[in-house]
Amino acid sequence: MKIFDITNYGAVGDGKKDNASEIQNAINDCSKAGGGIVYFPGNNIFMAGPFDLKSHVNLMIESNSVLLANPDESVYKKSAFKENLGEGTIWIGGESSENISITGTGTIDGNGTAFMGHEEKAAYVLKPFDVIDPRPHLLTLININNLLIRDITLKNSAYWCVHLIGCNNVKIESVKILNNLKIRNSDGIDLDHTKNAQINNCYIESGDDCICFKTRREYEECGPTENVIISNCIMTSTSCSIKLGSENMDAIRNVIVSDCIIKSSNRGIGIQNRDEGIVENITFENIFVEGRLFDDVWWGKAEPIYVTAFKRKANNDKDSNVRFAKRQTQGKVGRVKDIRFSNINCKSENGVFVGGEKDKISGVQFLNVNLEIEKKTSYEGGIYDLRPSDTIGLLKTKTAGFYIDSAKNISMKECSLKWGMNKATYYDKAVFAKDAENLSIENFEGVAANIDTEPFEFENCRNVFVK
Known about the structure:
Elements: E1 3-5, H1 20-32, E2 36-40, E3 44-48, E4 51-52, E5 57-61, E6 65-69, E7 79-81, E8 84-103, E9 107-109, E10 136-150, E11 153-155, E12 162-165, E13 168-173, E14 176-178, E15 189-192, E16 195-200, E17 203-206, E18 211-215, E19 225-231, E20 234-237, E21 240-248, E22 251-265, E23 267-273, E24 278-291, E25 303-309, E26 336-348, E27 352-356, E28 361-373, E29 383-385, E30 394-396, E31 402-405, E32 408-413, E33 416-419, E34 431-434, E35 437-442, E36 456-459, E37 462-466
């Protein structure tokens, strides 16, 4: 395979020169020649502004070599979301191409803190902007067929790290993503209208969602996100480690997540449907979840498992009206159905939450889901986080091992609950359900936080079976 060494195009690895044009020229020649390796030799720091990947190019970054984002905000001009200019720009891009690879054991560094305001206890302050938010997404690939990302380290993204839109046949394997846990919106991997994807053996630390499934409205022509397998990954998030939603105008379906470890996250596994799209046929199995409470600046309240369907709140900010369909001023929410959790072990400060609008959640199965709940931080608890929704944002109530609200066809089999030594005063029932229909609880082990209290409470429920 032919090698296109960027230093032969005049690139200089001194960490000061902007090498975007030299890298782009190497990519262009490589693609025109029918394919090959665009090579970043080791022991260099190649600083660069925006450039685009093209068909049949393997961007290979050698060990001890760094591709570093230019900290000059003025070089980032292309919006990551078409006419929506307020949610970041594109650094490394690519569109309507095929057979693209990013490999090597080097590092791609988004230089994230260079784009932030001052640092506070929970997060960096975001800089104000007029029209265009200049914060660059590290990698934005649109309509790519056959994509491989392997062995590389991606770090310090100023916005989303890996954003794949309308891509097909994707493999991400043995990749490290090391984002700053105080940078908001620094998602690890966002699968947006993307199909037939595998994410394996990755390590992800992120100041927002580690792996997130979406169907954003800006790219509605690209269809659903479907047919995805995630396995053997280790994740830590200041928000939610594995999230489906909240932007979902089409469908997210046919997903298997297995054999993963979630560490010290604000929310473990979250289905957060807030738009008219559906979420269906999702399986989570053989997963360890460790959760903890964080500051309110981050969505999530240490729910190890979270399944929700609430329409988006209608007020004038980036998480509301700009998310609605054209000419719509009120949101809608689609159904969440056929969701399976099996062999999940959870240690957190909060319990499982399942809730939504009437007739929106059905067919949620819990098999051998084991919870251990204990108060470990000084952050306020007794809260379930329903943001961004048209109902109350933060639901303050007593904490149950399993809290179920307005859902039907829910089954719990061989599940257990253990309260830790440090019990908060708001810790309460083992299972609390209201407005639920067809709820089955079989071979449950566990008691209420106060052993003198009944373990189960059912409010306005129909067809409840406990055995």
